[in-house]
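Both lines are retained for reference:
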Amino acid sequence: MTTMPDTNLTESTHLLEKSTDVSDKEDGVIEEVAPQDDNISFWKSGRTSVVICILFIELCERMTFYSISGNLVLFCTSVLLTDSPTAATISLAFTGTSYFVPVFGGYIADTVAGKFNTIYGSALIYFVGAAILPLISFDYIRVFSVGAKRGFFGVSLLLVAFGTGGIKSNVGPFGAQQLEDLGDGAIRSFFNWFYWFINVGSGIAFSAVVYIQQEISFFWGFLVPSISIFIANGLLLLQRKKYINHPPEGSALTNIVKVTAVGACSCCRKRETRESVNIQSRFDYAKESNGGKYPDCDVESTKSILRILPIFGCFVLYWTIYNQMSSTYFLQGERLHLKYNDFTIPVAVLNLFNSAIILMLIPIVDRFLYPKLEQWGINFTQLKRIGTGMILATLSVVIAAIIEIQRKNIMRDGHYLQQNLSTEVFNASDLSVMVQIPQFALIGASEVFASITGLEFAYSQSPLALQGVIMGLFLLTTGLGSYVGSLLVLIVNSISEAAGSEWLPDEPNDGHLEYFFLLLAGLMILNFCLYLWVSSKYEYVQPYSILNFSESEDRGRTTDYHTRKKPRVHSKVETLSESEM
């Protein structure tokens, strides 16, 4: 059960209950004096226990998810006795579904259940799904046939996908709303550490848990994530009396769709009509203050969402490059020298360099880089940080292409060897696999700037009534990036095969992996140019201060507006110049 905070805490939060007629305020500007310090750290705020609890919930959830997905293909082929293509399809479908469901999880939280209830309910579903996996990992031939195991396995993955979807879209915003009144710095710091805990969880999964699954048994390897998500449930309840929790705002999507339709049709209006009222965009025709039939806040929310979506669209190709770590980078690593003295380096261990650079960089940027830039008067905005991450991701695939060219040149000179991995034998270059460290590290560094800031951007620029949906849409770009990568491989192979030289054949030594990397780099450069144009046109909503109105019984009044932060709260966006982007 959701518990609201004590009165003394509520008075210091962003929830201000007033009865104000917006039309009485000039230009729709509402003044609210609430002086705050942007440099307050949540570590010193007195809310550390609540925030740490939420961070550990995310750690446990990510540890559970990656413990299940990390060896999914191996489990399918060795326990469920599927063929490799079927196992790969199951893995892709599970990952894709897990990143599509957050949109619905966010919608449920925003409109019906609230964030706390959605997270808790999703965690319970998650636990049931995770608990099924160790049960079907035993060799119960007399009780469970292979067919029965496959059936329960499908149910398990479906429950896990829905569970993670309900948690992922809400736990970040839920944690951030505990700190909204502490200022921009506290929110930014929260999302930095939020991502740090994500990578601790994934690091444990990809090292210790995956080792247990491969070297001991899948029963124990799946029991660990089941316990992990159970602990997450307990942690969520541990601080339930201290959470700042907002009730659901009700469905705003219907009005937003209608406002969008009005905006699309209003382009046909005469110029005289446009000049006769206070119209700054075609959507303003729908405002009640301009003679329309929709509350001004719904129109502003619609405009806010439509500004966000192009930025999100530029993330899709970024995630396509990110996903190369588990696909083409892995294939390249298998054909590099994996021996170090007498020790064979597992190819997958290079993913730890990605996590390691993230774990090292986040404290540096959070405690040193960002504060210093602010002291020096350098405005390193959210969009600038995202652009920096995109550049680093582009450099990663460029370096991968250079390494691939060098790898093949060394093999042509006769410096190659036969390398045994499990039951397969590869012709590998004498070049050490450690040369891949820079490309993995650059992806990790790019996440610190692009992915973390993307979470912060999705939270700070979204209407309060649609926080979960907007966060779900941001997470959706990850799944779309995976699908775009798969589609790109099919297109490239079809064209290159028709030209007589397939770029990505079954054996990469016979193809042109370097061309594919350079293609990704070229596409990302074009994507970055598009991003520069889109971001130069973007109108920032003052961070953490989007007004959200809910109609009272008296439709002429607004009864419950939420200021997320800031001394001055505006019902219209504040536009930054291109130089401030």
